[in-house]
Amino acid sequence: MIKLVFDSVKFPLERMSLLNIYLKADQPRARWKRLDTARILKRFYFCERSLVISCSAWLPHIESLEIKTMLPYFSWQNAKTANELRNRVFELRFPSRLLEEQGADRPLAAAFGFLRQAPSVSALLRALAQVALPALRDAYDEFLRHSDPLADAPTYRFLELGLAEKQKQITTIGQWAEDELVRNLSERQTTERWVRSMARLLEELGGVGTDEAPNSLEVEPPQGSQPIRIPDKPARDPRYWPCRFYWPDVVDPEFPYGEGLLLQLRSAVSHLNEVWAVEHGGIILSEFADDLPWEWLQDAARWTYDEARHCRTGQERLTAWGFDCAEIPLGSYIYESANGEDPIYRLGMLYFFETKNIGRKPERAAAFKQIGDDVSEHDMEFDWADETIHATYGNRWLKALHEANSEKIPSPEQVRKRCEELVQRMIHSATAEEKVAITERALGLINQAKQMAGKS
Ligand SMILES: [Fe+2]
Ligand SMILES: [Fe+2]
């Protein structure tokens, strides 16, 4: 019986050639094979990397505290996407771990790097919102429409998140760009001209794209570009009271750090004044990007974003208590202490001065708990958790830079010593007028705080 069935199937098979007939298999999800996908993701990675470096270099030039502390949030998101892209390329190309060669993606990565040479903050923001981020958004959107959520599911997941983040970044930065232009009307023409040139350049390269590699061109910075430099005076939000030394105890050892209400106020002003740490984070991220491995960018993006959050927690506590920004000191002495020095000292300051009080934070959080100041306690505890991570960053990267170039970069201990000297020199340069002004300002705030506390 079985033999009979088999013979009836076998008979037509023998008469039919099986060599030239196939099942139809042109399903759209097969568009990009493993190595095609790796090639596209590698391009996305280089664009994201360039974007993070460019935006970070701008931080000391940005006045608005909102933009200065939110841009690091976007850079951290983009660094996370870049990291996912990088890891996915390694998975798809296993066992190859070579990713440092930009190859065909060089012109595109260079074009994203030109954001660093924008003629102004307005031009940077407008080019981000109208050119660079939309180019990435469109490429991610195209990729997700044609990639395979089944075979390439790991890419699909993180790139969907990357796309959603890009859309939000475009909306937020677009609004900032408009506000900046209104504030600086004289820059309108230069800004628009430069952004148009950037758009033309991206167009000539064929956008970020998916299938096609960017056109192979020798790219030049758009006309009107200016190489960015590290400013001696960091830009500060004009709504605040500008100064070098932001509390009397910095220049006067007799002035108490305080407890109770004084500690609440001092701690919030300190957090707000971590604005220098945001700027140092941005500077060192971009300055060491080409000297250190990729992990540096990831750590530095997170570090800078953490400092931005610390700064915002101080700002929010002061605002919620009802203080007027115009009365609050926003200082620059640590930033300015590193002027003219190798960026290694900005890394050193960020590490040594930010983690110096790490041991006191739990003690302060407990003091806030005791007086029922929930929010200061909460912010101090999260700050403590971040600082423990930063201690690892500082150790790792100061050592790595010294080991990579011990002739130029001193040992971590020497960097620490020099940082202390630089800051002490700055403190000794405080004038009598500055000391009087900051003392009056602080006493004024303490009095206001007393009145507020009395009312509540
Ligand atoms: Fe901090
Ligand atoms: Fe820190």
Task: Describe, in plain words, how this protein is organized in 3D.
The chain is elongated and about 105 Å long. It is mainly α. Helix content is 67%, strand content 1%. It has helices spanning 2-15, 34-57, 65-92, 106-113, 121-146, 153-183, 188-205, 248-251, 261-272, 275-287, 294-321, 333-337, 344-355, 361-370, 374-404, 412-428, 432-455; strands spanning 241-242, 329-330. Strands 1-2 form a two-stranded parallel sheet. α2 runs parallel beside α4 (106-113), α5 (121-146) packs parallel to α7 and α11 packs antiparallel against α15. The structure holds fe (ii) ion (2 copies).
Major sheet strand order: 1-2
Question: Which series of helices and strands comes N to C?
Answer: HHHHHHHEHHHHEHHHHHH
Shape: elongated
**Which ligands appear in the coordinates?**
fe (ii) ion
Beta fraction: under 5%
**Computed Rg:** 27 Å
What share of residues is helical?
A: 55-70%
Biggest beta sheet attributes = 2 strands, parallel
Q: Unreliable segments (pLDDT under 50, ≥5 consecutive)?
A: none
Task: Give me the number of helical elements.
Answer: 17
Average pLDDT across residues?
A: 94
How far apart the termini lie comes to 97 Å
Q: Care to count the β-strands?
A: 2
Briefly note the structural class of the backbone: mainly alpha
